Amino acid sequence: MVTDYFSTNSRGGEHSSSQLLAARETSLRGPATARLSARAWRIVGGASLVILLTAVALSFIAAANDNARIARLHSSGLPVSVRITSCLGNLGGSGSNLASYTCQGTYQLSGVTYHEVVNGLTSLRANGTLVPGVVDPNQHSVVIAQSALATEHVSGSRYAAPTLLALAWVGLTSIVVRRWRRPSPNSSSPTS
After folding, report:
1. Which of 82, 120, 165, 192 could be disulfide-bonded to 145 (CB atoms 3.0-4.6 Å)?
2. Is residue 145 within 8 Å of 103, Cβ to Cβ?
3. Average pLDDT by consecutive 10-residue portion of the chain (192 residues)?
4. Are the CB atoms for 44 and 52 separated by under 8 Å?
């Protein structure tokens, strides 16, 4: 008589089908694996939801800050002439083609000389070239090329990604809460 390892228990008796299923789920060619408790899954699920909610909040804040910065540059940006000191090409995608340039330049504002990256330049500029720029009145170390600022506008589309993240968070939260409220299969309801 051939006996399956899972079909009999240590006392020679038959295992129930639920015991067989549990044994097959938790062992594979070796010792049985440890299973995470429901409490551990709740902690992992709760921590994941908190992390995702933090990402959602930070995404909304970043979108609002971008829109505020663009509005501030348009309404009260400080015009300057930036003298380019260096330009480096940025590779895109697989690294086989040039995507854009990162140029640094110097400019003076209120008697202080700044040496910063000039945002918004898409073409190579020779060292010493003067580029019209606009400086953020709240942060003098932020300068953008005037030509690039002309194409930037306050937009609600900056909130698209944070909104999708928020919808994902709501969906995941509803799934997790439903699972937490579902009674466990091992618990029995009290009888009267």
Report:
1. 120
2. no
3. 49 56 57 75 88 94 94 94 92 79 92 93 90 93 91 91 93 86 62 50
4. no
Q: How many domains does the chain have?
A: 1
The helix-helix angle for 160-181 and 38-76 (nearest 10°) equals 160
173 domain residue, yes or no: no
Domain assignment present for 10 = no
38 three-class SS: helix
Residue 14 lies in a domain: no
Give the whole-angstrom CA distance, residue 87 versus residue 117. Answer: 9
> CA 67 to CA 60: how far, in whole Å?
11
Q: Are 62 and 161 in contact (CB under 8 A)?
A: no
Residue 88 lies in a domain: yes
Pair 27, 35: CB distance under 8 Å: no
CA distance 134 to 120: 11
The 3 state secondary structure assigned to 100-117 is EEEEEEEEEECCEEEEEE
Domain membership of residue 122 as a residue range? 78-154
Confidence at residue 192, expressed as pLDDT on a 0 to 100 scale: 47
